[in-house]
Write a structure and sequence with these properties.
This protein is α/β, with parallel strands linked by helices. 42% of the residues lie in helices and 14% in strands. The strands form three sheets. A seven-stranded mixed β-sheet has the order 2-8-7-6-5-3-4, with helices on both faces. It has a four-stranded antiparallel β-sheet with strand order 9-10-13-12. Strands 1-11 form a two-stranded parallel sheet. Helix 5 packs parallel to helix 12.
C-alpha cells in the first residue's frame, strides 16, 4: 500500500458547502489526517502498528511535576491573567540564565503561553500589516506548518526558504536580497529543527538578528526541541546580545514530556512581548494557574530532563546501528526526538513510508513537510524502548 496525498477529499467538499474562510478550505486536507486514515486501514487488517509518525512524547511526566499540579487544584478557580504568574516568569528567567547565560527581565521580556503552538500561530496576527508593505512571512521548508498557517490566516504572504542537505539544512541567507528583506514582517527559524533534526550555529542567529535590525523585520525562533540534544547543547537566538526585533518560543512539551499540559513561553524584545501581552487577553490563551504552578517546578529541575535525553539517546542508538547496517543515510538528526532518513534510491518518500506501513512501522513521509522534504522520511522516537527494539527487528527483515 502506498500512502497517497490526495489534493481534495470529502472533508474539503463539506467545508466548501458553507461560507468559510478560503484559507481554511485550502488547508482542510492536512496530510497527517490522511496518514491516520491509512493507519486505521492497515490496523483493520490485523497488523500491529508501532507508530513513529507523530512527535507526541510518551515518556512519563516527572512525579514532582504531577504532584505540584494536583496540590495547586483549588476549590474555586478564576481566569488566568495573560501575563502569567510572577513565580512562573521568574522560573523561566532563571532557567534561561542557567541554560543560555542570558539575563531576562521577567516583567518585560517574558510571557507564558499555552504551549508554543498557539503563540507561534498568533504572532502573525500581531505583526503582519495586510494593508501595508509588511506582510511577507518567511518560513523554512521542510518544516512545522503552524507558522505558515498563522501567516496565511493573518492575511500574510509566504516566502518558503528551502532547507537542503548540502547546506546542512540551514537557510541560504545570500539568496535574500534587500527588496525581500525590506518587505519581511517575520522570518521564522526552528532549531533544533523539526523534521530534519539539524542544529544551527550561533553565527546564523547573529547574522539574522543584524539583518532584522537593519531591515526592521522580526526574527522569530521556535526552540521547542532545545533540550533534546545528544552531543552538545544547541544555541538560542536569545544569546545574540542585542535582542531588539528578536523573539524566542519554547515549551515544556518536549523538554519535560508535558504535551498535554500546554505550557510554554515567549521571550525577547520588550516591545514584542508587550504587544503579545496586549493581544493575548483578546484570545484568552493563558495556561491555567494550576498548570503554571506545575510549570514552575518543571523549569526549576534538570534531573528529569537528563533522564529523558538518556532514553531518547538509547532509542536513537538502536536505529543508528540499523541504518548503518542497511546502508540508509541518516541526514541532519543531530538533536530532537527525530531521525531524518534518506529513502532508498529510486523510491519516493510516500512509497517508502507506505511499504513500511504494510509491515506495521509508521513513519512520516518527508513530502508531508513541504516539497523540500521529498526524498526523506521522519522517525519520531516516541514508542517505548521495547517497541523500538521490536521495530528494529522488523526493519532488519524488510529493508
Amino acid at each position: 500500500m502506498v500512502v497517497k496525498l490526495e489534493p481534495r477529499g470529502e472533508r474539503t467538499r463539506e467545508l466548501e458547502a458553507v461560507r468559510l474562510s478560503p484559507v481554511l478550505t485550502r488547508l482542510a486536507t492536512y496530510p497527517f489526517v490522511r496518514l491516520e486514515q491509512a493507519k486505521r486501514d492497515v490496523a483493520a487488517r490485523g497488523v500491529h502498528l508501532i507508530d513513529f509518525g507523530v512527535g507526541d512524547p510518551r515518556e512519563p511526566t516527572d512525579e514532582r511535576i504531577r504532584r505540584a499540579l494536583v496540590e495547586s487544584l483549588t476549590e474555586t478557580s478564576r481566569y488566568p491573567l495573560a501575563q502569567g504568574l510572577p513565580e512562573l516568569r521568574g522560573a523561566i528567567a532563571g532557567w534561561c540564565e542557567r541554560r543560555f547565560g542570558v539575563e531576562l527581565d521577567p516583567e518585560r521580556e517574558i510571557i507564558p503561553t499555552l504551549g508554543s503552538k498557539e503563540a507561534i500561530f498568533s504572532l502573525a496576527q500581531v505583526l503582519v500589516d495586510r494593508d501595508g508593505g509588511r506582510k511577507l512571512v518567511a518560513v523554512t521548508e521542510p518544516g512545522y506548518p503552524v507558522a505558515e498557517r498563522g501567516a496565511l490566516f493573518a492575511g500574510g504572504e509566504l516566502l518558503r526558504l528551502p532547507l537542503l542537505e548540502r547546506f546542512a539544512f540551514l537557510p541560504d541567507l545570500d539568496a535574500l536580497d534587500a527588496d525581500v528583506l525590506g518587505r519581511l514582517a517575520i522570518l521564522w527559524l526552528n532549531y533544533p529543527n523539526n523534521p530534519t533534526g539539524a542544529t544551527a550555529p550561533i553565527e546564523l542567529y547573529r547574522r539574522l538578528a543584524g539583518l532584522a535590525l537593519e531591515h526592521d523585520f522580526v526574527l522569530a525562533s521556535d526552540e521547542a526541541y532545545s533540550e533534546l540534544w545528544f552531543d552538545e547543547p544547541p544555541a538560542s537566538v536569545l544569546q545574540v546580545g542585542d535582542r531588539r526585533n528578536v523573539i524566542a518560543f519554547n515549551t515544556l512539551s518536549k523538554r519535560s514530556s508535558m504535551t498535554g499540559y500546554r505550557s510554554g513561553f515567549a521571550a525577547g524584545d520588550p516591545e514584542l512581548i508587550g504587544a503579545l501581552r496586549a493581544f493575548r487577553p483578546t484570545v484568552g490563551t493563558a495556561p491555567q494557574e494550576f498548570v503554571q504552578r506545575a510549570s514552575v517546578v518543571a523549569w526549576g529541575d534538570e534531573e528529569h530532563v537528563e533522564r529523558t535525553r538518556a532514553v531518547y539517546a538509547a532509542k536513537r542508538e538502536l536505529f543508528l546501528e540499523l541504518l548503518a547496517r542497511k546502508g540508509l543515510r541518516l541526514a541532519g538528526s543531530r538533536a530532537t526526538m527525530y531521525l531524518w532518513v534518506a529513502v532508498p534510491d529510486g523510491e519516493g518518500s510516500e512509497a517508502f513510508a507506505g511499504r513500511l506501513l504494510e509491515q506495521g512501522i509508521v513513519v512520516a513521509p518527508g513530502a508531508y513537510f513541504g516539497e523540500a522534504g521529498e526524498g526523506y522520511v521522519r522517525f519520531a522516537l516516541v514508542p517505548s524502548l521495547e517497541d523500538c527494539r521490536r521495530a528494529v527487528e522488523i526493519l532488519e527483515r524488510v529493508l
